[in-house]
Write a structure and sequence with these properties.
With 187 residues, this protein is an alpha+beta fold. 28% of the residues lie in helices and 14% in strands. The protein contains five helices and five strands, in the order βααβββαααβ. It has a five-stranded antiparallel sheet with strand order 3-1-2-5-4, covered by helices on one side.
Length: 187
């Protein structure tokens, strides 16, 4: 099976915008503006969101390197393994991009079984918590457990709602990047 990766974003902002790539003070200013505006999913984030996000991204990056990954970026861009359409609801005018998984070099992408935040922080004893997977490993796991967006569509069975893909290289996604002075995070 040839899998697709999906990236969700707000039409007005464009795809692959990443708060983590900005200096902390600038990223925090943008996050505070989003919270004050009260629009979209990002407006519901806590004040310590950026600190936690950067810590989790560093943990994921280090775990990926230990497994042989070769991230070129300090912070990842995010996608999902296969579609998870409810993520579009996070945005005022949600859009999506999909790219074939096979277009990416395996040493430039990592995976978590669920969103990075709950996967790395949730304490429920599930074996895939606090784990970062390679492409081969996630394919085996999906073969055993299925995709969370299929067995947990409404989130009632836990925090895992999709397989998250961390893109550590802009080579493939560069054709989707729009040159702007303000960059805002996506899925």
């Amino acid at each position: 099976m040839s899998y697709l990766l999906y990236h969700y974003y707000d039409k007005d902002l464009g795809p692959f915008r990443n708060l983590s790539s900005l200096p902390f003070s600038q990223a925090n200013q943008i996050l505070n503006q989003l919270i004050q505006e009260g629009k979209g999913f990002a407006s519901r984030r806590s004040n310590d969101y950026l600190v936690i996000r950067r810590e989790l991204e560093e943990q994921a990056r280090n775990a990926f390197i230990r497994k042989g990954g070769k991230p070129r970026n300090e912070f990842p861009h995010y996608m999902t393994l296969e579609a998870c359409c409810w993520i579009k609801e996070w945005y005022i005018e949600g859009c999506e991009i999909n790219i074939r998984l096979d277009e990416f070099n395996e040493d430039s992408i990592s995976f978590t079984y669920g969103d990075l935040f709950p996967t790395m922080r949730y304490e429920d004893g599930k074996f895939y918590r606090k784990q970062v997977y390679t492409k081969k490993e996630i394919m085996e796991l999906v073969g055993k457990l299925g995709l969370p967006q299929e067995w947990n569509k409404d989130g009632t069975l836990g925090p895992e709602r999709y397989v998250e893909v961390q893109i550590w290289d802009e080579d493939i996604i560069s054709k989707y990047l729009k040159k702007r002075s303000i960059i805002i995070g996506g899925a």
